[in-house]
Structure formats: structure tokens, C-alpha cells
Amino acid sequence: MLQIGLSGGIGSGKSTIAMVLEKMGYPVFYSDQVAKRLYDEHPLLQKQLVDLLGPEVYRDGQLNKQFLSEQLFSNAELKAQVSALVHPIVRSAFESWAQQQTFDLVFNEAAILFETGAYLKFDATVLVLAPLETRIERVQKRDSLSREEVLKRVANQWTDVQKMALTPYHVVNDGRPLLIQLEEIIAELRQKFKV
After folding, report:
1. pLDDT higher than 90, residue 99
2. The model's pTM
């Protein structure tokens, strides 16, 4: 079974690409959704976050997302520490999920596969790209953030150029036909890995 990472910067449209892949019949694991669930359901992770960030990281037993975002986007070291707690748990959940799949190709959608080095754990990674202005508009609409807030989040991620150097598989999500791009990439992957 090929395990393929699916990543891209904030607002690039990873989720849209993941949904297209699912419609094509491929199983997709949504790392960011699983991580959000684990923040609220994983007792050890909750304890570690409280130890690291203080009791205000949870409010009435639920993750205080605004507090966590403020902490992480203003402190790169703290962000790395939280990632080091969360990512192994999510990776383990992905491995368990992948073992239950019967398809010969599965995808793992996650925002920061390149920044964390997690892309190295996959057979290949597909990078989703979109123009910066398009990404800003999407995130403003989706998250009700100001332009400055979106740009701050973009600045916390690697540039597309940095990521493009690490994978030859790119999907441009700017209105071009997505299905054709994905079919070409999947054909390349099947040929390269003989699946």
C-alpha cells in the first residue's frame, strides 16, 4: 500500500483536493481533524498541554482554541513543543487507520508535513498550491480573520518554493481542472512504485 501525504499552505485548498480524491475512490485520513479531536479526547495530551501552557488552555473541558492559537502563532519554540506532543499521537492514529484500508493507495491530509519533516514518512507527498491572494480570501471567508491575521499565519509556514523543492507532485488549485491534475499524479505514482 502506498501512503501519500497531502499538504499545502493555509488556504491552498487541501480539503477540496482531499474531497476530490475521496470521490475518485481513494481513502483520505484528515490529520488536522483527528488532531482537533485528540486535543479534547486524549487525557495524556490534555495533561501535557496544561503542564506546558497552563490551565487556561482548556475551558470547561474543551480546548481554548483562541488561547492556543495566540500562544502558538507568537512563539515558534512553543509551537514546536506542542507539535512534538501532538504529531506522534496523530501518526499512530494514521498507522492504525491505514492498516484497516483495503485500497492500494491512501492519502494523509495535513497542514505542516514539510515543516515537521513528517513528509519523509510517506512514499510521496502531493503539494497543493494556490496564489497568495486567493489563499488570503479563502481564509478570511472561512475563519473570519483580518488580512493581517491571515498573513501572520502564512508567515508561520514554509513558503511554497521551499515545499516545492521537496516533492515533484504539485496540484495547482486556482481554477484549473483538479481531476486531470490528480489523475496525472496518481498515474505517475503508480508507475514509479509499480502499484
Report:
1. yes
2. 0.91
